[in-house]
Amino acid sequence: MRRTMLKTFAAGLAAVAMSGLTGSAFAQQKPVELQFYYPVAIGGPVTEIINDLVADFEKDHPNIKVKPVYAGSYQDSVVKALTAAKAGTPPQLAVLAAADVFTLIDEDAVVPIDSIANTPADKQWLDGFYPALMLNSRINGHTWGVPFQRSTIVMYWNKDAFREAGLDPEHAPANWDELVSAAQKLTRRDASGNVTQWGIKVPSVGFAYWLFQAFTTPAGIELMNPAGTKTFLNAPQAVQSLQYWVDLTTRYKVMPTGAIEWGTTPKDFLEKKAAIIYTTTGNLTNIRTNASFPFGVGKMPAKVRGGSPTGGGNFYVFKKSTPEEKQAAMTFIKWATTPERAAQFGIDTGYVAVTPAAWETPAMKQYVQKVPAAAVARDQLSVSVAEFSTHDNQRVTKSLNDAIQAAVTGTKSPKQALDDAQREADRILRPYAR
């Protein structure tokens, strides 16, 4: 009886041990699951592009499952990501604004990319992105974000409107004086004096601070220091830039009075309500698809130099992830930024393909031959600057946006508005400037 009991006990132990081994094997085979926050409203072409990108990745990597979460605007996305992080349920991976890098660091929400990707091959990979796109990515000796959905501001112009106004349809205004002259010829009024076509529209609602940099960069001033602890919002060149922006409306009468919405500006261009617009290169595919007229794409007109701020989103990896999740996130990031996929994402969306190697792929070479305008934003990278970004970025940016609104709506002079914004920025950044 005792022998039988011992045999039964031993068999039971063996079964438990075998069960543990089987469970461990199954655990090892279970895919790593990643929540991927992505800044776009639900629905639309970009959502479909990301869904397809994820599906292709999962075919290549069946041991990793990626769940996209479409979190709205960049501002919505960073708020949702940080809220989730504080609640202990952050995404493992997100595309968030490159300009929010200081906020993500200060909140201790993300890890340096180079703490995960730290081999010589990884360093070579990180050094393969356009330097201008790394200006909002490399902080205090570490790389915190990987360029993905990146852009510069470009000028779109209606070639038919140029031709009708007696302008060369193949050449965009190269400097501020030429821009005013062209916009005056392009502004059309009916017999009653009502404007039927504006010479230019520059949006001041949505990303006012970014569009402001489309003037301050050519004027030769950067609005913050690389450490994100100081701003120069009321420097003479900044005041001159905002005055020029306001003058397009008040002095030259080539742009509507009051605030101009970011979201409606491309629509106004497509409906021939504006002959020139400033917007992101990320609108290229939209405009190519929907324009009923030939159009051009040009760099920012110069004052003392050329150039635009960079913009758009970087990949970030969140700190409260397991080592396996961090490695899986890096696998996805590296896969999504290979030359072939970076090129295809640029072709599909209009965003700038983020590495020189992407522009050497057969698909991109063929695309540029067909759509030369696609190369404009890439070529502008050589003179581009970092997007406006500081510690406590949302509050500092709001003070600048409010100043721009006050100036373009006429409630304050450009100098008074920027003096007020600088005073507020100094107050907000005082704890970081020590």
TrEMBL record:
<comment type="similarity">
    <text>Belongs to the bacterial solute-binding protein 1 family.</text>
</comment>
<dbReference type="Pfam" id="PF13416">
    <property type="entry name" value="SBP_bac_8"/>
</dbReference>
<feature type="compositionally biased region" description="Basic and acidic residues">
    <location>
        <begin position="417"/>
        <end position="434"/>
    </location>
</feature>
<dbReference type="InterPro" id="IPR050490">
    <property type="entry name" value="Bact_solute-bd_prot1"/>
</dbReference>
<dbReference type="GO" id="GO:0042597">
    <property type="term" value="C:periplasmic space"/>
</dbReference>
<keyword id="KW-0732">Signal</keyword>
<dbReference type="InterPro" id="IPR006059">
    <property type="entry name" value="SBP"/>
</dbReference>
<feature type="signal peptide">
    <location>
        <begin position="1"/>
        <end position="27"/>
    </location>
</feature>
<feature type="region of interest" description="Disordered">
    <location>
        <begin position="411"/>
        <end position="434"/>
    </location>
</feature>
<protein>
    <submittedName>
        <fullName>ABC transporter substrate-binding protein</fullName>
    </submittedName>
</protein>
